[in-house]
Every structure is written in C-alpha cells, then in structure tokens.
Design brief:
Blueprint lengths: L18 E2 L6 E2 L16 H6 L2 H20 L3 H14 L1 E6 L1 H9 L8 H6 L8 H15 L6 E7 L11 E5 L1 H4 L3 E4 L3 H6 L13 E3 L3 H9 L12 H5 L13 E5 L7 E6 L6 H14 L5
Antiparallel strand pairs: 1-2, 3-4, 3-5, 4-8, 5-9, 6-7, 6-8
Helix pairs in contact: 2-3, 2-9, 3-9, 4-11
Bound molecules: zinc ion.
The site of zinc ion has 8 residues, from loops.
Length: 294
C-alpha cells in the first residue's frame, strides 16, 4: 500500500471532481471535505482535485510525451533515473521564518499557521495591499473556500528549500502529510498569472497526488535532462532557488490542514546574510531541533 493510504469509500472522484456520498448518495461539492447531508468524510478536496479523472489523464499524456522526447534524444535512462528517484525519495520542505520554527519547537501545542489564518486571527497585519489582494486572488482561484486550510511547501531531494520564504527549512515527515498533500507543477502565482482571464479554467495535467509526484516532475523537467545528466543534477533540477520568489523554480506542495512539530523530520537553518536577531533565533532552533524524532 502506498503512503497515501486507502481510498476513502466516499471518494469516487468524477471528471468534474464532484463526488457522490457512498453513505447517503447526496452530491458532495468539489470544495467540501464532508458530505453536507450525513457528514461522511469524502477525502481532502485538494487531493480529490489532483485525482480527478481528466486531470490524471492529462498528466499521463504530458508525462508520456516527455518520456518519448527523452527516448528520441538518447536521454531515456537519465529520464527514468530522475523520475524514479523523485517518486521514491522526494519530500516536502516548508520554509519558515526563524521565529515561527522556534515557536513550533518551544511548545508542542503550537500549530504552523498560513498567511490567511494569521491575518484572519489578527496575529499579523496584512501584507502591502496589492500583495495581499494578489495572494487572496491566487489562493481563491486554486482552492476556493478551503484556501485557508492549505499550507505551501516545495518538493525537494535535499534538505534545502526556498530561502525567499524563510531561513528554516522544515523537512516534513511523509507519514504526516502524504495522504493530504497535492502538488502543482510550479509556483501558484506564476501558474494563475498565466491564465488569460480570471474566469478561465486552469489547464489540466499540472496537478498530482503524492503517488504520482515523480510523473509530474518528469513531465515538467524532462526537457532539461540530457544523456550527460547524472543523479547529482537531480536535487538542483527539481528545486532551483532564485534571487526572488518569482525566480524560484519548483514544484509547489499543498498540505491540507494543520501540522505541529511532530510532523517535522528535521530543520535545516540558513545563516548567510541573517540579521543578529535572526542568527540568535537560528542558533536556538538548531539546538532544539537536534532532538526531533526522525
Ligand atoms: Zn452523505
């Protein structure tokens, strides 16, 4: 059995991502996690979206096209190596500010909160107005009414994540998140930004669940693999940090629901360029995180 777990009896996903409740036969909307009639669980809506029939078929098509191109260019073996390693060994890294990582370590009751949750609970101020509006637009476009349940990370093959989001890279335990995580081929901002209008449906074939993340990586990155590529290239190919968020190139992970420190396998601190205050916090994070259970 995969780490994604069993398919829930109520999650018979159709092409349009609607489901029929297996307990009472009521329709369950794409954004709902529970049946509105009997409250039977229907599965995580982001994972259901990634497993929708047309989404899966479109990703299969993109993957086989990339695989065929690799065969034509003599990179078949390297392509297979990249896809296999990503499928078997990639994990999710959430990049967090030092103070956020420290809060998780100091109190096991603390949960990691996303931007919307912090703003809604008045635990932080909104970002600059234009950035705040854009962030809410992107989240709403992808997730609708469950957007505030989604925590973002990046798919990785090393311990290094995206510095533009925080200096502490939280390496998540697959057991804690694999069943509730879906992936988008790229940064959600750039993905939504390419839609020609806000009412356009997103193109199919750019989402996947945990069990097909190697396929998504192959479909996206196959064109960069040559016969001279080696396995040492794979971590950098899968996640390429840029100077700014818009320059980062990565596969975005969407984790449904909360997580605490027990969901984290390890923390990797990035000191270069840190302020004195951040450096002091990073030292505390490093010391406390050394006791994490892998
Ligand atoms: Zn029901």
């Amino acid at each position: 059995m995969s780490q994604e777990g069993t398919t829930h009896p109520a999650s018979m996903v159709t092409a349009d991502n609607a489901v029929i409740c297996q307990h009472c036969n009521s329709p369950i909307g794409a954004a709902a996690r529970f049946c509105p009639t009997c409250y039977q669980e229907a599965g995580y809506p982001n994972v259901r979206a990634a497993k929708a029939r047309d989404e899966v078929a479109a990703l299969d098509q993109r993957y086989h096209s990339a695989k065929s191109d690799a065969e034509t260019s003599g990179a078949s073996s390297a392509f297979a190596s990249f896809v296999t390693l990503t499928q078997s060994s990639s994990h999710v890294i959430v990049a967090a500010p030092p103070i956020v990582a420290l809060a998780l370590l100091r109190n096991t009751s603390n949960l990691y909160a996303n931007y919307s949750q912090l703003v809604d609970s008045e635990a932080r101020s909104p970002a600059e107005h234009d950035d705040d509006c854009l962030r809410l637009c992107v989240d709403a476009r992808l997730f609708g009414s469950y957007h505030n349940k989604i925590k973002c990370g990046a798919l990785a093959l090393s311990d290094v994540g995206l510095l533009n989001y925080g200096r502490v890279f939280l390496k998540m335990k697959p057991k804690a998140i694999s069943h509730r995580t879906s992936f988008l081929s790229e940064n959600s901002y750039t993905f939504v930004g390419r839609l020609s209008s806000s009412t356009d449906p997103p193109p199919l074939g750019y989402l996947c669940s945990w069990s097909t993340r190697g396929k998504l990586a192959g479909a996206k990155l196959g064109e960069h693999i040559t016969s001279r590529s080696t396995s040492e290239d794979w971590p950098q190919l899968l996640l390429t940090p840029g100077n700014s968020r818009s320059d980062d190139d990565f596969i975005e992970a969407h984790i449904f629901g909360p997580f605490d420190v027990n969901a984290i396998q390890s923390m990797h601190c990035h000191y270069d360029g840190a302020s004195r205050a951040d450096t002091l916090t990073l030292r505390a994070v490093e010391e406390l995180s050394s006791a994490l259970c892998p």
